[in-house]
Amino acid sequence: MILIVVKYRVKPEAVDGFLDEVADFTAATRAEPGNLWFEWSRSVERDDEFVLVEAFRDGAGEAHVNSDHFRAGLASMKPLLKETPLIVSRVVEGEGWDRMGELTVDE
User: Model pTM?
Assistant: First the structure.
């Protein structure tokens, strides 16, 4: 699978409405057949930083970046950002989350 983590630094005036602004992009990406997950969170260290963790099945990344909603999503985000986002994008084994072996909880 393709595992991607992106950090977005958002302008102060756009922080409160950022997730609303990316809602259509988020919904469209989650509806892609090759999307495994597309999850936003907010940094606990920086008030203006949002972190996106996303994953796609092998071969589905190209369809994602070539989609109309991808281009529209980036265009709508760009004026809200303070700087170019930071990204880690890697192909990894598997197609989902695994349990952490080093920290198990009796359920």
Answer: 0.92
Tens digit of pLDDT for each residue in 22-51? 999 999 999 999 999 999 999 999 999 999
Q: Span 2-16, mean pLDDT?
A: 97
- What is d(CA 48, CA 75) in angstroms, rounded to the nearest whole number? 19
- The CB-based long-range contact list for 94-99 (8 Å cut-off, 24+ gap) reads 94/1, 95/1, 95/36, 95/57, 96/1, 96/36
Q: How confident is the model at residue 63 (pLDDT cuts 50, 70, 90)?
A: confident
The 3-state secondary structure of the chain, one letter per residue: CEEEEEEEEECHHHCCCHHHHCHHHHHHHHCCCCEEEEEEEECCCCCCEEEEEEEECCCCHHHHHCCHHHHHHHHHHHHHECCCCEEEEEECCCCCCCCCCCCCCCC
